[in-house]
Every structure is written in C-alpha cells, then in structure tokens.
Write a structure and sequence with these properties.
This protein is α/β, with parallel strands linked by helices. Helices cover 27% and strands 30% of the residues. It has nine helices and 16 strands. Strand 9, helix 3 and strand 10 form a beta-alpha-beta unit. The longest helix has 13 residues. It is globular and about 55 Å long. The chain starts with a strand and ends with a helix. 44% of the residues are buried. It binds flavin-adenine dinucleotide and FE2/S2 (inorganic) cluster (FES). The site of flavin-adenine dinucleotide has 30 residues, from strand 4, strand 6, helix 2, helix 3 and helix 9.
Length: 284
C-alpha cells in the first residue's frame, strides 16, 4: 500500500501525484516506469513513467492522463488515500552519455511527462538540450516551466497556433536536422504516430533516434507477451527490453494495430487515439 502525498490537476484530464515510495525513489533512473494496481481484487495493472523522484524525501511522482477506466479511477483518489500496489522501478534506464552536439528531446501531449527525467539526465550530464514540446492547444501544454529550466532551448508547437509555433513537432525537428549544428541524438515520446513521424524525419539525416513505446502491459515481467513489439524484425518485450528502442527499427504500424486490440471492449474513445488520428490526417 502506497500513500498519495500530493495531487495537482495540470490540465483538463492530466494529473500529477506524489506517492510515498522511498525504496523506488532511491533506485529509479531516467526512463524507468512503475506498474500500478489500484484495486485489491485483481484490478487492472497499468504502466506509468516515474516522472520525478526524491530519494531524501522518499517519494516518486507520476503524471497521467485520465483516458480510461483505471486512470480515471486513479484521478479520483486524493491526498491521504492509498494505492494497493506500486511495482518498480521497471524497464531499462535511458542510456545517457556526454554528446558533442545537441540532444533534441521531443515530447508530444502527455509524452512530455516521461520526457522530463530524460531531459533532466541529459542536462546533468552537461549536454546541450533542445526541447520541442507539442500539444493540440495552449491549455493542454504541461510542465513548460520545468522543461524551460532544464533546456538550453525550448520550442513550443501547438496544432491551433494558440501558443508558440503553429506547427507539428516534426517541422522544427527537421529544421534542426538541416542546421549547421545537427542533433547528436533525438528522443521522441508521445502518441505512436508522432514517434513514427519523428523517426521518419530523422531517418534521411541518419540521426540516432530513441523512442519510448507505450504498449499495453499486463505482468511487466516479459512472461505474458502483452507488450511485444517488432524491432528490426525481432520480437522484443517493452516491459523488460524497453521501453526505449531505436525508432528507426520499430514497426510502428504493427504496434498501433496491436494497441487497438481491446478497442471494441471499451465503451468510450481514447483521447490518445483521437489525437493520433488527427496528427496522422495532417501528415498525409
Ligand atoms: C512504459 C510506459 C509508460 C507510460 N507512462 C505514462 C505516463 O507517464 N503517463 C500517462 O498518462 N500514460 C502513460 N502510459 C500509458 C498508460 O499506461 C495508459 O494510458 C493506461 O494504461 C490506460 O489505462 P486505462 O485503464 O485508464 O485506460 P483503458 O480503459 O485501458 O484504455 C483506454 C484507451 O486507451 C488505450 N490504451 C490502453 N492502454 C494503453 C497504453 N498502455 N498505451 C496506449 N493506449 C492504451 C485503449 O486501447 C483504450 O482505447 C505509459 C505506458 C507505458 C507502456
Ligand atoms: S507486460 Fe507482459 S510481457 Fe511485457
């Protein structure tokens, strides 16, 4: 049982929670995630990135979008309530090293939350970090101040032009690839369609591009096969081999097809899917 220490609503359906978890806070590294189970009675297990952690104060932070049954239930819990099971840290940590050129971190929508610890780690490693943040509109942008504080340059894009540039994130990404000082490495986290097009943008420039895959997960141990993906024609499990992979090798079309597997069982439309379809339509 883990206690909720703080709760804040960041936008219409995005919430930030501090959870008491001293052992996880001590161990966690950038790129790792938790599997959370709210209910005692075999409730759904959902993966959420460790957006932040404080080992001295013994807490981890999650930032999540209330898209379906479990995340909506989680959003209704309050300070002082308990979460039944919090498992972690899981997954391979992000590989961070000193780079000669800039590292470009692209976060789309809620993808900005899992990007935060990666930006922080590159900043600490002394890399020049250029962050590109994208959202449908100004109201949906999260963590602008935190990202600005850690980035040498921050580029904001909105679909409707209500804030920053009226562009998809791939437009400034392409400009950076074409510049005199192109990225040494690109990280992209967001809806699968956004990560796919970020990888397609950097491919002609041969800029190494990592993506963090948000597949459906069940056990988080590599046993159930729920999170399997095809990477360079090899089967990998996001929970144990990932969540980060070489974006140029990911079979995004297969991944997106598998993510829709449970769609007919859902009584509502997923916001991530709606956003992804809009982005896909714009790219065509
Ligand atoms: C490693 C990892 C880290 C993640 N980190 C975060 C995070 O920091 N913040 C955050 O908000 N989300 C994150 N996600 C996504 C999050 O796990 C899903 O949004 C959540 O499982 C949805 O559960 P639900 O019961 O609320 O929705 P459901 O009722 O299960 O589903 C609602 C809709 O979302 C779709 N869906 C279900 N699970 C996923 C999934 N894992 N990815 C994409 N679509 C899904 C369903 O097809 C359905 O249409 C992460 C996923 C992974 C794999
Ligand atoms: S979640 Fe079961 S194999 Fe990854």
């Amino acid at each position: 049982m883990k206690k909720i220490l703080e709760k804040k609503q960041l936008s219409a359906d995005v919430f930030r929670m501090k959870i008491e978890a001293p052992l996880i806070a001590e161990e966690r590294q950038a790129g790792q995630f938790l599997i959370i189970q709210i209910d005692q009675n075999y409730g759904e297990r959902i993966p959420l990135t460790i957006a932040n952690a404080n080992a001295e104060e013994g807490f981890v932070e999650i930032i999540f979008q209330a898209v379906g049954a479990t995340t909506q239930k989680l959003s209704r819990l309050n300070v002082g309530d308990f979460i039944e099971n919090v498992l972690g840290p899981l997954g391979q940590p992000t590989h961070i090293e000193k780079k000669d050129g800039p590292v470009v971190c692209v976060g789309g929508g809620i993808g900005v939350a899992p990007m935060h610890p990666i930006v922080e780690a590159h900043h600490k490693a002394g890399n020049k970090v250029i962050t590109i943040m994208g959202a449908r509109n100004k109201e949906l942008l999260i963590m602008e101040d935190e990202m600005r504080a850690l980035s040498d340059e921050l580029i904001i894009c909105t679909d409707d032009g209500s804030y920053g540039r009226k562009d998809l994130v791939t437009v400034p990404l392409k400009e950076l690839c074409e510049s005199e000082n192109p990225p040494s490495e690109v990280f992209a986290i967001g809806p699968p369609i956004m990560m796919k097009f970020c990888a397609e943008t950097t491919r002609p420039f041969a800029v190494p591009t990592m993506v963090s895959l948000n597949t459906i997960m069940v056990d988080g141990t590599g046993m159930c096969g729920g999170c399997r993906v095809s990477i360079g024609n090899e089967t990998k499990f996001v929970c144990v081999d990932g969540p980060e992979f070489d974006g140029h090798l990911v079979d995004f079309d297969n991944m997106m097809l598998r993510q829709k597997a449970y769609k007919k069982h859902e009584a509502h439309r997923c916001n991530l899917d709606v956003e992804a379809e809009k982005l896909e339509a714009k790219q065509k």
